[in-house]
Inverse folding.
């Protein structure tokens, strides 16, 4: 009971206190959708007039996700010039900004009243972990929700069928012809990016117990960039880029490994925080 | 309740903020801590409240040493530095939410705590609209509402006008009569001496003087 009261406090304090920040997520999602729409029509209607007309109904929610938050291919060597997928990076860094400083600030502010009543730093930390995961979940739910709503409202196909021509145009790579189930695509494009984000956000929050917020934020950013550069099954951000999923078929990142890897970061983060707080002072940020 | 500090030291890197402090504090007595900024008053209160750990030495509450897992006193009201609450809620909503964690007191008791500090429990203004003095009063109400055995008030008269200071003095008197162990810190020696039974002077993390009130006047005792 005490735990839920504490969680209720966390949600009130940070979740509902500044609703305007959620509006920013809506605006970001709308901007990403608009950018995608402009890009597609510019490419197919202006650059290739009369050659490759795209029927709006053949553009799907999966295309929107792949080209807005799906990331990009890693560095493949040779003449290829590596560019960080800016929109993808921004989506994640914006999310991690949401969860950056609350726990640390609360440790020296209102959280004092809560933790001394609950008399357990462990409970305080677990509440922050749940709050963190809920915040990331809401962020992604809103992001996907807005993208889905705009996909549907603009007469596009609200499912997970990938359009090969758009894929080819965007990634300059042919889409392998594979059987892709709707569920597998949903896991690759929605579930795994969310789960990887929860894991990275929790690692960031745990780091805040030891280092300054700016350093933790830079660390998370570097982690994403390293993931964008290297295709490696053990680098978590690879699972945050849906385009690299085995379901899409170009890279072999398996969802089950993504889930295990995410849990391998989530659980130790929770545990590390519990252990660290046993000896850590609750003080204002100096 | 008896709180014992046995040769407690607190260091942050090379800085010693509390230096071999040994004290015994008992229920029904008001203890005042006096000292300039940075003398260690707030750190001592944080340490007693369980928010920080001693680098060495022991803190015992009723004979039980405080450890990593059992660090917070069971019944404690706390005001440390500037109070902080949920800005989008009223004073009553904030206190009701905090009181709900322990579930020891009812809504009328929360209202009573607000009235004791001179705040209107039915005031619909959000905390963010409160003046500094109102925030301080709300912090005090939060500390006293659950009738704690240990009441820690760090700079309780900060930002308060004369009426507010008089209210704090009355509250401290009432809490003492109830049998609470009260710890106070204050810049203003006059206010502190009016409220306290025993005053400790802190200089650079050390207790340099202890004065005890006897028949209305303070008598110096060995530290």
């Amino acid at each position: 009971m005490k735990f839920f009261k504490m969680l209720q406090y966390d949600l009130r304090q940070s979740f509902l206190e500044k609703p305007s920040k959620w509006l920013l997520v809506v605006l970001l999602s709308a901007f990403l959708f608009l950018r995608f729409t402009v890009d597609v029509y510019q490419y197919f209607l202006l650059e290739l007039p009369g050659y490759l007309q795209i029927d709006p109904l053949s553009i799907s929610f999966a295309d929107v996700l792949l080209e807005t938050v799906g990331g990009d291919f890693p560095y493949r060597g040779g003449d290829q010039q590596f560019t960080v997928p800016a929109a993808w990076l921004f989506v994640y860094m914006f999310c991690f900004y949401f969860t950056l400083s609350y726990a640390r600030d609360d440790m020296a502010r209102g959280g004092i009243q809560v933790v001394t009543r609950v008399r357990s730093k462990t409970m305080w930390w677990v509440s922050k972990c749940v709050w963190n995961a809920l915040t990331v979940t809401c962020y992604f739910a809103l992001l996907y929700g807005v993208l889905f709503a705009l996909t549907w409202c603009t007469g596009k196909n609200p499912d997970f069928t990938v359009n090969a021509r758009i894929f080819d145009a965007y990634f300059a790579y042919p889409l392998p012809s594979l059987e892709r189930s709707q569920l597998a695509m949903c896991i690759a494009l929605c579930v795994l990016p969310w789960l990887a984000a929860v894991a990275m956000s929790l690692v960031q929050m745990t780091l805040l117990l030891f280092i300054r917020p700016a350093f933790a934020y830079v660390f998370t950013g570097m982690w994403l960039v390293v993931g964008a550069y290297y295709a490696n099954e053990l680098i978590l951000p690879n699972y945050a880029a849906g385009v690299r999923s085995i379901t899409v078929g170009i890279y072999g990142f398996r969802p089950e490994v993504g889930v295990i890897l995410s849990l391998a970061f989530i659980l130790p983060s929770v545990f590390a925080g519990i252990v660290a707080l046993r000896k850590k002072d609750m003080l204002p940020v100096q | 309740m008896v709180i014992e500090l046995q040769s407690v030291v607190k260091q942050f890197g090379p800085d010693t903020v509390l230096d071999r402090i040994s004290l015994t504090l008992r229920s029904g007595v008001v203890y005042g801590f006096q000292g300039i900024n940075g003398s260690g008053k707030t750190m001592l209160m944080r340490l007693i409240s369980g928010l920080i750990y001693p680098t060495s030495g022991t803190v015992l509450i009723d004979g039980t040493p405080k450890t990593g897992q059992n660090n917070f006193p069971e019944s404690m009201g706390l005001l440390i530095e500037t109070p902080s609450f949920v800005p989008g809620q009223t004073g009553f909503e904030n206190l009701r939410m905090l009181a709900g964690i322990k579930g020891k007191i009812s809504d009328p008791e929360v209202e009573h705590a607000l009235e004791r500090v001179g705040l209107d429990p039915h005031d619909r203004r959000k905390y963010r609209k409160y003046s500094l003095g109102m925030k301080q009063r709300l912090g005090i109400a939060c500390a006293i509402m659950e009738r704690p055995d240990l009441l820690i008030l760090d700079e309780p008269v900060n930002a308060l006008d004369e009426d507010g200071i008089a209210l704090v003095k009355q509250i401290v008197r009432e809490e003492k009569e109830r049998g609470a162990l009260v710890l106070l810190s204050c810049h203003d020696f006059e206010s502190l001496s009016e409220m306290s039974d025993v005053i400790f002077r802190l200089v650079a993390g050390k207790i340099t003087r202890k004065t005890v009130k006897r028949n209305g006047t303070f008598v110096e005792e060995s530290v």
Summary: Chain B touches chain A through 28 residues (CB under 8 Å). Residues 162-178 of chain B form the longest helix (17 residues). The radius of gyration of chain B is 17 Å.
